[in-house]
Each structure stands twice: as C-alpha cells, then as structure tokens.
TrEMBL record:
Species whose genome carries this gene: Zoogloea dura
Domain of life: Bacteria
Pfam family, one: OEP
Matching SUPFAM superfamilies: Outer membrane efflux proteins (OEP)
GO molecular function, one term: efflux transmembrane transporter activity
Protein name: TolC family protein
InterPro entries assigned to the protein according to its UniProt record, in alphabetical order: MdtP/NodT-like, OMP_efflux
Coiled coil: none
Amino acid sequence: MAQSALAAAPAAEPYKLQALRDAARATHPSLQAARAMVDAGRAQIVTAGAYPNPEVEFLAGRTQARVPGAATGASQTLEITQRIDNPWQREARVGAAGYGLEARQAEGRVFEVDLLARLDQRFFELLRRQAEQRAAREDLSLAEQIRARVAVRVQTGEAPRYELIKADTELLNAQKTAESAGLRVAQAKALLRSMVGPGLPVDFEVDGSLAAGPAVPGLEALREEVLARNPELARARAEVRRAETQLELERLRRHPEVALKVAEDRDVETRNSRIGVFAVVPLWDRRTGPVAEAGALLGKSRSDRDNQELLLLQALETAYRHYEIARNQVNALENGILREAEAALKVAEAAYRFGERGILDYLDAQRVFRFARNELISARYELQLAVIEIERLRAAQ
C-alpha cells in the first residue's frame, strides 16, 4: 500500500523523512523476512502445545490347527497406544517456544530499527550533498563574476594579467567542484532509493533540513532507556529465558514416559481384550548429555546477554561523546567562526573593489569563508549521524 502511494505521488512533490520510513516498513524485503520468522515462531508454539497422536497397530493372519479337534480360521489383533503427555514437560515446551517467539520478535525489531537508522543516514547524507551542491553553485556563480570583473580590469590596464590567470584557475576549480557535487547528489539519491524501494520515483526530491535536530536526553537517562528498550538486549534476555526453560525441560525428560495401551485378539473361537500401561524407565540413559548441553547453552546465553549489555552501553557513550563534539563544533561555527569569516570576506571584497588589496587577498578570504561554510555543513551532518545512532540504540524510531 505504501509502495503504490509513493508511486502515485507526483514526482516533483518532496518526500518527508516519515513518509520514506513508512514506505520502507511496508515493502523492504529484510523486514518481510523478519516478519516471516516471527510467524514461524508462532507456529512453533502451536507445535509445542500439540498432544501426541495415538498409535494404532492392526495385525491379521490365520490360525492353523496343530492338534486334532483344534479350530482353524482367521485371526486378528488390534492394539491402540496413547502416550500420556507429561503436563510439566508440556508447559516447559510451550514456555521455551514462547520465549523463542519473543526472541524472534525482538530480532525483527532489530532489523527494523537498523533499517530505519540506515535510511535516516541516507536521507541526511542527501541533504548534506544538496547543501554542498548549493554552496558549489554559489561559488561557481561568484567565480564567474570575479573572472568577468578581472577580465575588464586587465583589459583596461588596471590589473596585471596574472590576476586573470588566477581568476581562470579559480573558475575551473569551482566548475570542477560543482560537477562533483552534482554527481554526489545523484549517488546519494540512488542510495536512499535503494533503502526505500522501487516505489520511490527516480527523480524524487526530499523535504528536510540539516540544521533541525531532535533534543537528546542526558547520558544517564539514555542508559536507562537503552537497558529497558533496546531490542538487541531484549533478544538476548529472551534467549536466556528460553535456555533456562530448555534446561528445565531436559531435566523433566528424565522422568518415566507413560502410555495407555488397549489391545484385542480375535480368532475363530475366542476374543481376548486387554488394557494396561507401559512406561519407558530412564534406567540407563539419564539424559546426562542433553542436560549438560542445555546447561552449557544457558551459560553461553547469559554471557552473550552480559556482553551485549556492555557493548550497547559502550556504543551509547561513544555516540553521546560524538554528539557532544559535533554539537560544540556546530555552535562554534554558527556563532563565531563562520560569522568572522563572512565579515572578513566582505572587508576583503570591499578593499578589492576600491583597489586597496589585490585579488589574492580577496580569493584567500573567500577560501577561508568557503572552508568554514563547508565545515558547518559537515558538522551538522555529523551531529545528525550522532543523533541517529543514539536513537537507534534507544530504539526510539
């Protein structure tokens, strides 16, 4: 449904990030595969709760007389065996399957959160490349204006010819940068489209801003959210509970297995009916191996859970420090460095127009401004990446 909605939308209409997320949720193959695994987990619960089927055995033959006077004729034997399901074993089986379903549901959530995080990264990468393209086009337009001014001054003899050579070099560099920026935009669009699906038009546009970023809570609050909500940790915890229940099940299988048996024999003279029970007594095989294996797997599951918790907290701290560094860089560039570079550029431009400074000073001031502006674009993008990683760890997609 989301795919058809994207396809039906006008190609010129920009797409917001939430619309792209909804489309990816509905159509991405990895999420479809994860949902199929969840359905398989539900089927395993049904399998675990199924009762054993009765066993029916029918034998037919013929009675042959070996002594005089004995009857001869057809003979039949019918046996029906119904194994009695141990209710404690049944409860453990269903419980293990239920925890397995929880693990698969958490795994599906992991796929979804990771997919949306990668989609967000591609979305903001496209915004970054578009911002770089706009800046490159502005630089190209300015380089063309400078080249035209310098050409006039050189022709009138007001400036030496080397200034025209320098202006031509700057114009060529600006053209090359603008072409590269356009190619990077096309590449970023293709990568974003691959994350959403073919329902997204080839010539789509996006609606978003690098400067906009959600507020991030403090590190302690984030730790609590990660420990409570992260799907990778939820999967590890479900695996521990499943392993605990599986160990309990293996221990319960040491108990005798009981079955009810009904039999009837028929021949030409007699009809013999019997009813009774039989039991499989674990005398020699005490299931030492399966119990030990289940115990070892439980220990591994607990170690994996503890390791997953440690890795998540380390990743959270790293992402938060990255967020703080990027935020400080953005603040420094927005509130100081870029403004100073822009002011210096205006002064250099005015001085060049009045002949107080040469073109080299003006071009140097322009390069400083471009560098600060591009650094701001990069810092905003890095800030968005840090926020995306934090949101992925706290599963707040």
